[in-house]
Write a structure and sequence with these properties.
- The complex is a heterodimer of chains A (80) and B (260).
- Chain A is an all-alpha fold and 80 residues long.
- In chain A, 70% of the residues lie in helices and 0% in strands.
- Chain A starts with a helix and ends with a helix.
- Helix content of chain B is 91%, strand content 0%.
- In chain B, helix 4 packs antiparallel against helix 5, helix 4 crosses helix 6 and helix 5 packs antiparallel against helix 6.
- The chains are: A mainly alpha (80), B mainly alpha (260).
- At the A-B interface, helix 1, helix 2, helix 3 and helix 4 of A face helix 1, helix 5 and helix 7 of B.
Chain lengths: 80, 260
Amino acid sequence: MKKAWLSILIIVVLAVIAYFVYSYRNVLIPSSSESAINQLEVQGNSDEVSDIENDLNTTFLKGLDSEVSDIEKEFESAGI
Amino acid sequence: MNRRILALFVSLAVFSPAFALAHEDDAVAQAQEKPVPARKQVVEEKKALKADISQKRETLKTEIKQKQEALKTDVKQKREAIKAESKTLAPEMLKEKRTVLREDIKKERTELKEQIKQKRDTFKEGAKERVEALKNKLSEEKAKRVEVFFGTMVRKFEAAINRLRNLADRIDARLDKFEDVEKDVSASKTALDNARMVIDEAESSLDRAKEEFKAMAQNEKPDEYFKKVKEVVAIVSTKTKDAHRALIDVINSTKGISQQ
């Protein structure tokens, strides 16, 4: 009897996890994009030349359009 | 007792989707019972709302463009006027005039930033509408993912453009300080104006990319139309990098001023 309860509990837990994973998949954002946004949003206020230069040198603009290939993959897998 | 609870639990698990479907059917039935004019009214209201958002966006875009142009001309004229007067004006008066001009420019730039933010928000408001249009060609999940991917990319570009605008403001503040101690900053100010122009071009290209994305969602062949979106996104990327390079050139030129 205990085994039956345990099995049900495991099934319920797995179902709940599957539900959340499935829901979250719909709005999945790569963490690299979020960290790129956070990095771009942080900068100093100083108007010293060296500080401005430092913030300019840490302005990374590579891969801003990386989602283009993700969108293309969505179209490819849809087979339209 | 335990068996009864177990049976109840299993029955609930098995039949709950059926209950949900039944509930959904009720909702559908209720919706079908609604009088036709009411539904028509909702559709018309939705259409009006869409048109309103589009109109709002267009108006904002035009206003921003006009303001940017006006600000550019205004700043140039006032700077030249102060420069011409600088030989005859007392240092105190000159400083006061410069301060007034800087305050005016700062106020106008803040207003512009606010309008740009409003314009960006109108794109975000249209997400649901775009997913609705796109899910007819793809699955709903895929339509949502495409929207999320594009939205994330837009946020990255907006963050990059904001950062560049902020850096331009900081360089401006530094040049003002140099100007206050009678250093010649005219070449750097012109270079900074040009850099700001490239930043504005990046923002305008991003607007075009958003418009093309919206058109793609409504197109019968979104996968083919996406090529157009991709082309415009490549322009946004290039313009953003150009603006960054232009700011680096300006900051390098200020090193010469500080050594004067």
